[in-house]
Amino acid sequence: MQQTIARPDNCSEEEWALRIKLAHCYHLIDFFGWTETIFNHISARLPAQGDQYLVNPFGLNYTEITPANLLKVDVDGHKLDDSPYDANPAGFALHGAIHAARADIHCVIHTHTNEVSAIAQKKIGFTHNDFYGAQLFGRVGYHAFEGITLFQEEKQRMLTSLGDKHILVLRNHGIAVGEMDIERTLFLLWTVQRAAEIQVTAGALGGEDNLLEEAISQRCADLTQMLIKDSGFANKFFNAMVRKMESEKGPSW
Q: For the segment 13-67, what is each residue's pLDDT rounded down to a tens digit?
């Protein structure tokens, strides 16, 4: 897809940069094979407006999302700019609740890949006995399935389930992850996805697992969070993945 997309006059440079990054994130989720056709959501809080965020227009494939057609909405899902598109109401309860309550989370990604959904269905949830699973030790909240997330009254229960964590397993459903920016959120999702893939593969392989001590898993999780927070590691990962995607598929827009 090659097209020229100019920044609208009423869009600040800061907002436009965020729109470009979020559109890239949507394309990366498609590139990695983590989409659920037109469903699921990635949202990013607008830097100057804590109660406003950008989200995908409902009905578009992730590859059709551009910086210009992303929707600007408030935490209740009301559109704040003219657009021929609407947002998916199933995203408002989850994304709106997190953005309204967690000032430390500026991006939220929701997926339900096969591997993540399989983990979400199991009572044990994520184990922490492999390289990626260990990085999630103590970082995962679990929320009981209440059906499609459409209703206002579920918001507080989801927030209680999330607590001060950045990973929320939606039981019998999927995953939501959130971090301080788009780059860190994508990297966290990648780590969660890899943990799910390895756990599912190891379970199918059979045999006895080599279990890690909790102290080792805790140290791994602590070191990972410190690395991602302070090093620019997630930015390097994000930019490298955009380059890889565009080298294989061409420019995104």
A: 999 999 999 999 999 999 999 999 999 999 999 987 778 999 999 999 999 999 9
Query: CA–CA separation, 67 vs 63, rounded Å?
Result: 12
Chain centroid to CA 243 = 20
Helix segments in 32-130, DSSP class H: 97-101, 114-121
pTM of the full structure? 0.94
Tell me how far apart the terminal alpha carbons of the chain are, to the nearest angstrom: 6
Q: Chain centroid to CA 148: how far?
A: 18
Spatial distance between the Cα atoms of 72 and 44, rounded to a whole number of angstroms: 10
- 244/99 Cα distance (integer angstroms): 30
Q: Is residue 55 within 8 Å of 89, Cβ to Cβ?
A: no
Torsion of CA 27, 35, 158, 199, to 10 degrees: -110
Structure tokens at 217: 């898993």
CA atoms within 13 A on the CB side of 74: 3
